[in-house]
Structure formats: structure tokens, C-alpha cells
């Protein structure tokens, strides 16, 4: 795919804004150092962001001997962004200011079997309406809604191409949402969303190569390689959940047998429990959330069955994560999403032990395995950054080839 000068310019503008959001207040000199862009390019991009009222001038700092440096900061009230996390069992929506502080949250539970596109769209529309009302922001200030939906998505057409857990094929999700939601909409999936969230605010910040293991109903690996998001040629990189862990193993929704997901996704963990103790009171048939919650509480009480289930799950996870470590040699592996958050430290400890048995020693020594440190829902946060990226892109298209014609050169160094 050919990148036009406008694409590069939009990417550079996004990168500068990202640095300002991460480190406000900051100077043009610091931004140039952090992004690898020239000072002249940064000055131009900062000027554009000031025009868009996404950032503001906030005074000066002394520079030893030289002229005082002008400082800029993100203009938190310059707009609102909405992040939508559609999962198999819930819809979670957050509204953020431009500094990506959460201003409002809304949740909708989805009952088992409630997975028709129009049902899901109804929940999303309700929750989006709720966060806008709670935060009391004017509709005109909402810059966009980023939507994360499980499975493979086409970002350009807004089509959910394939969601195995719902048996969705080519659902025009963005068009369906646009019938009920008046804001600009941007679609991607939770692997991308949680990887961006870690890159901006979490354990992958300032790191070159990171793998974000997303443990929910479905399972996958968000990849941040070379300091940026790795999408692959058709935006489906990271479908690690559908790599084969056990030959002729459990049947997966994708049609194959023995996929990673069938052993470590929430339904897979339920199956691990069922095989160990079919009559266990921890088992809530048909209700993954209740079962994982019961397991988490039982671990806290040192229940031997619960501890064994976590160890068994971690054995599968450890083998799968070792593959990722051997393949990608990442600096950090982050365990993210609701199952990882609920099972927490006990799962992390068992995973570290299991990985140590499988991964090669050199890449293992260079890798840290951690739980996501992001205090809010990483998928909503990441989805909101997609809306921010989209808003900058459409602002760039509106501006077109107006007064500022300096071409931004492409980034030569990853951001720190
Ligand atoms: Zn599969």
C-alpha cells in the first residue's frame, strides 16, 4: 500500500499529539527528541494542533543560557472521545476527555445467546447515549467513537468479517451502528485496542517490542513491534488464539481442533474445571463470568480445585506464550483483559513458572511477564485512541492542501 504525503503527515501529527498527551506540558524541542522529527516539522505540527484546539500554550520554561522555551499541553476539554468494548458477555463504554481521563462509564450485560448484530448494536447505542448524558458534554464536542469488536474486522469498510464465537460473517457493523449513533465511528478489534492502550499508558510504554496477551472469552495477542502497532497485511495479525496447541484437541468455534483459545479462553477454563471436577460448585454452566468470578474467589480461599485449575490453565498458556517469546523476542509480555484481571497474581505466578519450562533461555531472560497495569478497561481506552486517530485524519482531509505545505518527513526513530 502506497503511503501518500498526507498519510505521513497525519501519522506524524498523531505521533506528536500522542507524545503531548503522554507528557504534558512539553516543549517543541522535547517533542522533536521524542519523535525523531525535525524541530521545524514539529513546530508546524504543533501549530496545526493549536489551530484544532487540541492543545494549548501553557507558558515557558528556562533553557540554560538560551531563549525560554514555549510549553504546550493537551487541551483536555478540547473534545471528547468514546471507547466501546464489545465483548461476548458485555458491552462496556467509556467517555474520555482529550487527555484520555475517564469522565463517564456505562455497562450493558449480554445474556448468553444474545449475539445477533442488532441486539449488540442496541446495547452499544444505549451505553453511548448513557455516557454522553452522564458527562454532560455537547454532541458537537464528541470527536468520535472507537468501537472494538472481537474477531477480524475491516477498518476501512467497517465490516466485522469473522467473529467465530458469534458465528458472524461479514456483518456491516459500522453501518448498523451509524443508524443509531450520530458521531463518527471507527472500528477495530480488542487485540489492536489493548496493544495501543499498553503502548500509550501501560507496560509497553517506551518499549520496542511487546506482546499483549488478551484473555477473555476469545484469546489473541496484540503485537507492538518496533515501537508501533503491528497489524499485518490485512489487519489480522495476532490470531494466536487460533494456533494449534494440541493436535486433534478440543473443537474450536473456528472449525479447527486444539486451538490455544479452547484451553485458555473463559469457556476453555470452564472445560478445564469440568474435566477436573465435573460436580464442582464453582461451575456455573452457561455462565462464564460467574464461573471465572467463583474461581477467583476460591483461589483467594486456597481452594485446591481452583488452584489446580489455574495451574492447568497456566500450563497451556505457558506453552503458548513461550511460542510467542521464541518467535518475537519481546521485551514484555502483558496479560490483559477480564480473565487475566480476575485471576490476577495467582495466574501470573503459574504462567511465569510454566513459561520458564518451555521458552528458550536467551529470549526468556530478556522478557518480563506482567499483568496489565492499566487501571481502567484497556480495550475502551485503546478504542478511544482509534477515534482520536480518525478525528485527526478527517481534520487533515478538511484542511487539505491549505496554507501549510511543508511536507513532514517520515519518522526515522521510534518514540521513546
Ligand atoms: Zn480456533
Uncertain runs are 401-416
Question: Total strand count, please?
Answer: 16
Average pLDDT works out at 92
Fourth-level CATH superfamily of the largest domain: ATPase, nucleotide binding domain
Q: What's the CATH topology name of the largest domain?
A: Nucleotidyltransferase, domain 5
Count of alpha/pi helices = 13
Major sheet details: 5 strands, mixed
Description of the structure:
The chain has 416 residues and is an alpha/beta fold. The two termini are 27 Å apart. A hairpin with a 2-residue loop joins strand 13 and strand 14 (228-229). Helices cover 43% and strands 20% of the residues. 46% of the residues are buried. It folds into 3 domains: 5-75 and 393-399, Arc Repressor Mutant, subunit A, CATH 1.10.10; 78-193 and 377-387, 2-Layer Sandwich (Nucleotidyltransferase, domain 5), CATH 3.30.420; 205-371, ATPase, nucleotide binding domain (Nucleotidyltransferase, domain 5, 2-Layer Sandwich), CATH 3.30.420.40. It has 13 helices and 16 strands. Bound molecules: zinc ion.
Describe the secondary structure blueprint for this structure.
Layout: H1 5-22, E1 26-27, H2 28-35, H3 39-51, E2 55-61, E3 69-74, E4 80-86, E5 90-97, E6 102-109, H4 117-135, E7 142-148, E8 152-154, E9 159-163, E10 168-171, H5 173-178, E11 185-188, H6 190-201, E12 210-215, E13 219-225, E14 228-229, H7 261-264, H8 266-276, H9 288-300, H10 304-328, E15 332-336, H11 338-358, H12 361-365, E16 368-371, H13 378-399
Parallel strand pairs: 4-7, 7-11, 12-15, 15-16
Antiparallel strand pairs: 1-3, 2-3, 4-5, 5-6, 8-9, 9-10, 12-13, 13-14
The chain binds zinc ion.
Residues 242, 252, 254, 256, 259, 261 line the site of zinc ion.
